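Morning. Coffee machine broken again, so started the prediction first thing and wrote up yesterday's gels while waiting. Chain of 316 residues, entered below exactly as on the submission form.
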Amino acid sequence: MKLALDWTPNTNHTGIYVARAKGYYDDVDVDLSIHSPAEDDYETTPAKRVATGEATVAIAPSESAISYHTHPDYPSLTAIAAVCQCDTSAIVTLASSGIDRPKKLDTKTYASYGARFEDHIVRQLVRNDGGEGDVEIVTPPKLGIPNTLLDGTADATWVFVPWEGVQAERDGIDLNAFSLDEYGVPYGYTPVLLAHPTTIDDEPELLARFLDATRRGYEFAAADPEEAARLLAETADGPGLDDESFLVESQRRIAPAYLSGGEWGRMRHERWAEFVAWLADEEILQTIDGDYMSAGEIDVGALYTNTLLGGTDRNG
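Came back before lunch.
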């Protein structure tokens, strides 16, 4: 079984590395290989790896599920679990820039990851705060994006606060962070685990076993962030993993986001539906040819499933 990560290993992924280190995948007879997008310098997105059969499961934002449900040339990928229950990402600027709210990003530069809906979401965030949404978009190499604020090539970018935000704190860099929900963007789950519909239909037992072991890993990480950080450092390879104090602090920050009511992975229909409706209302939801879509053209219940998590509800 192949898992495609969305980024080099970090604390979003800790539960997976814990599960592997603790033998949870062995317990359920899952032979898991983990692949970083740095292997091909981010040439292929994790979602596309699943769509083309290169990977069994991918970590990606919920927009990827929505995007593949509007793409005529690829299968409609389905989210099978939410890695985090609350959004820990934000649009950030340097505090020294004076850009202390989204509307001040008008005429400024945003460093984009090139995701399909990303730039539209950022521009709408600016408009929601009273700006025009007149933001210049640049797409630097992905691993260099967090540094664009420091080197002056961009005024803002999108980061995970428990990772890049903590790194900035430790380096004495003050950031302004604009969370999406604070400015009227009902953002979906990020990240989620995505699977191919054929795999869900043909190998549900494999996916259910994988999710059960992964759940145990994230529950462990939520309960013992310090030990989880140590296991991540010992078993993963990537930037930032050799700094023990940073890793522990990042793990402590993100640990509360893993679970909701003590439960990992389960997704709410209302949250998916609200995000899809917002994308449609703001004319962000489009076909790949640029035609606007209504929320009714997306089967929200097909974007995700909870059944592989051990429950009986597909869309609960």
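The first helix runs from residue 14 to 21. Going to sketch it on the whiteboard this afternoon.
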